[in-house]
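Researcher: We're reviewing a set of sequences before deciding which ones to prioritize for further study. For each one, I'd like a predicted 3D structure that I can look through quickly. This is Acylphosphatase-1. If possible, include the structure in token form so it fits the rest of the review sheet.
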Amino acid sequence: MAADDPLCREPLVSVEFEVFGKVQGVYFPKYVRDICLQLGICGWVKNSKTGTILGKMQGPQALVDQM
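Model: Here's the predicted structure for Acylphosphatase-1, in token form for your review sheet.
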């Protein structure tokens, strides 16, 4: 990316999250991954041993807020 690209000038934010409820067995991690790829957000998402979804995402504030 060029230095004048707006994405290069906007500071990145990082968010850790945990989702509760019926989120395992319903393709929630795949959905999160697909949306993050569309938005250009980096990170990871996984099922936890306690039945929740854990994740971390990083990107420009506006895109993380949109997610």
